[in-house]
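Reading a protein record of the kind used here takes only a little practice. The record below shows the convention in full.

——
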Amino acid sequence: MGYDPNMRPDKKTMIKGMALMIFGNFLFVWVLAWTMAGWQFIPNAKEMGPLVNGVNSAIFLWLGFYVPVHLSNVVWERKSWKLFAINGGNHLASLLVVALILAYWT
């Protein structure tokens, strides 16, 4: 992406970034938990088990929220398809891991 690999942010910027990242991760888990709870209202959802609930929630959130944003980055910001695959794959993997933890935890 053209960043200088030798550039290092100052400590205050790093702490602020970490705090915002932690807050964002709590929002991420909270929205995912609500989405997974919403799947329980579908007929026969309880019979499908936690694995299907977690995977369905993760994939639908990924398709509905992450893929469009990454596609617009490719189209309007001229980011590469390789970056699309890396970022999209990272978000899908994150969603799947957290969704499966939530599914088996509750």
About this structure: The chain has one domain: 31-105. The chain has a mean pLDDT of 89. Residues 31-105 form one domain.
